[in-house]
UniProtKB/TrEMBL annotation:
Protein name in UniProt: Rieske Fe-S protein
Gene3D superfamilies assigned to the protein according to its UniProt record, in alphabetical order: Rieske [2Fe-2S] iron-sulphur domain (2.102.10.10)
Residue ranges constituting the Rieske domain according to the UniProt record: 45-144
Record bears the keyword Cytoplasm: no
Signal peptide region: 1-23
InterPro entries: Rieske_2Fe-2S, Rieske_2Fe-2S_sf
Keywords (A to Z) from UniProt: 2Fe-2S, Iron, Iron-sulfur, Metal-binding, Signal
Lineage, top ranks: Bacteria, Pseudomonadati, Bacteroidota, Chitinophagia, Chitinophagales
Pfam families: Rieske (PF00355)
Keyword DNA damage: no
Species for this entry: Chitinophaga japonensis
Amino acid sequence: MERRDFVTNLSVALALACTGGLAACSKSDSGDPDPNPGGGGGALLTANLGSELQNTGDYKIGGGVILIRIAAGNTVSSFAALSSTCTHQGCTVARFNSSTNLIECNAPCGHGSRYTTSGAVNTGPATAALAKRTITISGSTLTVT
Ligand code: FES
C-alpha cells in the first residue's frame, strides 16, 4: 500500500469513528438527562386529562419531563411542561410544591435548587433554567414532546 493510500484510508476510518462517536452521544436512553432537547420527535409524556392532573398544583414526572397543572381548564396555557433534569448536576427534580409554587430538586440526589413553573431558577445552586417542552392537547389527551 502506498503511503498516500494508507493516509487516505486512515482518514476515512477516523472520520467514521468520529461520526459514530457523535451519534452515540446524541442517542437518547434512560440515562440521558435531556432526551429531547430540540423538542421534536415522539411523545415524552402523556396525560389523560379525564383522570389525571385535575386540580391546580397536580403534577406528573416521567420521560424526562415534569408536567404541572398551573390553572383551571384544559388548554395548553393551563399547564407547564419542563425538563425534569436539574441543571445543577443532572438529578431528576423531586416534586412540585404547590404551597410555594416551586419545583424542588431535593435530597437524596438534589441539593435544594428551586425553579418556577416557567423554568427559571428561584434558588441555587442551579444557575440555568429548566428547558421548556411543548404541550399539545387533543381531546382529553395531553402530549408533551
Ligand atoms: S442536582 Fe439539583 S440541586 Fe443539585
